[in-house]
Design a protein that fits this description.
Helices cover 29% and strands 22% of the residues. The protein is α/β, with parallel strands linked by helices. The strands form four sheets. Strands 5-4-1-6-9-10-11-12 form an eight-stranded mixed beta sheet, sandwiched between helices. It has a two-stranded antiparallel sheet with strand order 2-3. It has a two-stranded antiparallel sheet with strand order 7-8.
Length: 292
């Protein structure tokens, strides 16, 4: 069992007593991650706006939910969670406002003016503090982009990892969102990119959690010495795409495909890797492995 913390939904920065500066995030992917994590037997804390169950759906009782409103509220809850216990994984999926109004107008500002000019100032970059607060936890950031080519988006994802000392970045493109659907790419510290096919939020959450479980095991769980036999491993039908390559599959991959006819291979998107086709062609099958 892992202890997993998830931030989700958008912050609200008050302009006056009734108006806020916010965004359109519903927190539905963050909720799906929590539901899937609980289904897999993990302990989950969700930091999300109080409205999230209305926007994204009700939460199972096993999920502890602590609400926030502003960026400062979220920072306070993150610090509190870090003090209370150690965490294995932190998903920072919240859509945190980059700016807030420089001044707050008490009460409700009259609406009879033709113009209202707001001066905005930066909010704290919370993702930059996660390593300080959560130590050795596996840190997963999220990056939403729009109107950029793939090279630029992958560069921003890698920069997020390097600058904030996170372990993984889940890259999203606004143009690839659909009604009830989501598409993403997992970017690693080493620059490897694992595309997740467009699917429902629940399916994407399953793929992400499967990837995270295997990544966590490889990073933090020591091997079992003197084991009589290896655990049974199977390939599940997943939403990871397989990299395309002109070279023939390795013997291991070919054997995997023969023995697992249900493995989903979708070659419609080529594996992208900034280090070129030689590295990309050596990537393993992008179906996640699950211990049986």
């Amino acid at each position: 069992m892992m202890r997993i913390l998830v931030t989700a939904g958008g912050t609200q920065e008050p302009i006056d007593a009734v108006r806020v500066l916010s965004n359109v995030s519903t927190g539905s992917l963050g909720r799906a991650l929590c539901v899937e994590a609980v289904r897999r037997g993990h302990a989950v804390l969700l930091l999300a706006p109080v409205e999230l169950p209305k926007l994204a759906g009700p939460l199972p009782r096993a999920i502890e939910h602590r609400p926030f409103r502003t960026t400062i509220d979220l920072e306070t809850e993150l610090r509190r969670a870090a003090r209370e216990r150690s965490w294995d994984v932190v998903f920072h999926a919240a859509a945190v406002s980059d700016y807030r109004p420089a001044t707050f107008h008490p009460g409700k500002r009259p609406s009879d003016s033709e113009e209202w000019v707001l001066r905005l100032v930066r909010t704290p970059k919370l993702i930059a503090r996660l390593r300080e607060w959560f130590g050795r936890a596996l840190l997963v950031g999220f990056k939403l982009s729009s109107g950029m080519d793939l090279d630029s988006r992958m560069r921003l994802a890698r920069e997020q990892i390097e600058k904030n000392r996170t372990d993984l970045c889940v890259e999203n493109n606004l143009a690839e969102f659909g009604p009830g659907e989501h598409r993403a790419r997992i970017v690693t510290k080493s620059g490897e990119i694992f595309p997740i096919a467009k699917a429902s939020k629940a399916s994407v959450a399953r793929s992400l959690l499967g990837f995270i479980e295997q990544t966590y095991k490889s990073m933090y769980e020591p091997p079992i010495l003197g084991a009589v036999s290896s655990p049974k491993i199977r390939i599940r039908s997943s939403h990871f795409r397989r990299p395309t390559s002109s070279s023939s599959p390795s013997a291991k991959t070919a054997s995997t495909l023969r023995n697992n006819p249900d493995a989903r291979l979708d070659p419609s998107e080529s594996q992208y890797d900034p280090r070129g086709p030689t590295h990309a062609s050596s990537m393993r099958l992008l179906g996640f492995l699950e211990y049986g």
